[in-house]
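A sample copied in:

***
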Amino acid sequence: MLDLGTLYYWYPGDINTAVAPAGTPKADTWEIYIAPSWKWLSLKYSHSIKSETFGVRDSKGTSYLDISANYPIPDTPVTLMAHWGWQKYKGRDTNNTGGLTNDAAYSYKDVKLGASYALPKDFTIGAYYTKALSYSKVGYGSFNDCVGANCGPYPKDIGAGTGTIYLQKTF
C-alpha cells in the first residue's frame, strides 16, 4: 500500500514574548509525505515545505524518516511495536542556536519499543518506551545541560527515555 499526503500542524494563539524572544516564529509546520507499507512494516518520509519548521527559522526542507513495525503475534491479542526515526533539520537559525546550524542544534534520532493487548469491545491496553538518540542538549536539554555558553531551553531534558502506559478505545 502507498499513502501520499500532507500534514499541517497548527498551533493557535500568539507567541508569549515573556518566555520567547520577540520575533520568535510560531511552531506551525506544513509537511508533505510518502508512506509505503507492507503487511506489518511501514516506511514514511516527511518533508517540510514551510521555512519555519516547528518554530525553527530557515528550516525549509527539514525531513523526518520513520521506519516502524507493528507485528501481531499470530493467534494472540498481542502486537509488538518497534520504531526508529530520524529528524534532520536544514538551514541555520542564528537567533536560537548561538551560531550552530539547525542540524547541529535540532536534528535527532529516536526509538520506540512496546507492546499492546487487544481487549473486548474495541479497547486496547499497551505500553512503550521512547528515547531520543544523537540529539543536542542545546536543542532539547534542560536549563542545566550546557555546551559551552549555550544551555538547553527546557526545565528537563526532553530527549531522555520515558515509558508510557495507555488505554485506548476505538470508535
